[in-house]
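Justification of resources, computational component.

The compute hours requested in this renewal are based largely on the per-chain cost of generating structure records like the one below. Each record pairs the submitted sequence with a full structure-token output. That output is archived, and it is also reused by downstream analysis tasks.
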Amino acid sequence: MLQFPSKRATSALLAATAGAAALSLALVSGTSATAAAPPSVSGSPEGAFTRIADFYGSYIDAVHDGDGRTADQLRAFYLSEPLQRELRQWEEANHANGVLRAQNVPLKWKVTSVDSGMGKTNASVTLTWSGSTTTTLHVQADLATRKITSIRD
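The structure output for this chain reads:
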């Protein structure tokens, strides 16, 4: 008597066939059958550029979370004394956050190295606001102290 395979065997056979077909399609189309690598962030405590990125990421998080104490501590650690004084004056005159040059908090940020020379490193900080509008700040840090010494529109 003719015997048909069980439902379990049929399901396993169909799954194996579908998997082989997907793998074949991936090989033919040149795509990977594996998932994309997860995002990563790296840096070095010795690099002035990394310090700029670390500061902006941490500072924006603190301001976003309404943690003024942490924001002040980050300013004290990452910013030179003269820049801290300059920012206080700017903020008093403009009624806005001098680090962000705004009254609100950006939705995203990106720090890009521009160049280094004469004991300084320069970066552009792009802040993305609602409606996808952006502003770019020009930030400079001292290579020896790794302190941020200038923030300009």
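The helical segments are 7-29, 48-64, 68-78, 81-94. The radius of gyration is 26 Å.
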